[in-house]
Model the fold of this input.
Amino acid sequence: MREIKFRAWDKKYKKMWNNPKLVFGADIEGPIVTLLRQGNHVDCQIDSESVAVMQYTGLKDKKGHLTEIYEGDIISEDGKIIGNQYENSTLLKDKTNLLIQGFSTKTWCTTYQKALERGCTDAE
Done:
C-alpha cells in the first residue's frame, strides 16, 4: 500500500515545503491551504492559487538511490531524479528528461510506465 504524502511549492516565496501537513479550507475570500509543520503550529497560511501541491506517487527512483518521486519531479534517462518543474524547469528543455505527471492527468499511466522503463520502482 502506498503512503499518502505531499509536498508544496510556495509560488510567491519560491520555497518547497517537504512533508507538510496540509489543511484545506475556505474563508470569505476563497480557498486556503494551511501548512502545519511541527505539531499543530501554523507556519504559513496561503491561498490555494499561491501553492502547488504535489503528491507522492509511490515510485522511487532507480535502485541504489531510492528517492521518493513526487508529481512534478523530473527523471533522467537513467531513472534518477534530477529536479522538479518548479525549481528546475529548464531541465524540461531536454526532451529525454521525463516530467512525472500528476494522478489527475490523462497521461499518468503513460508517465508511470515510462518511469518503470527507466528503472524506477514501486515503493514496498
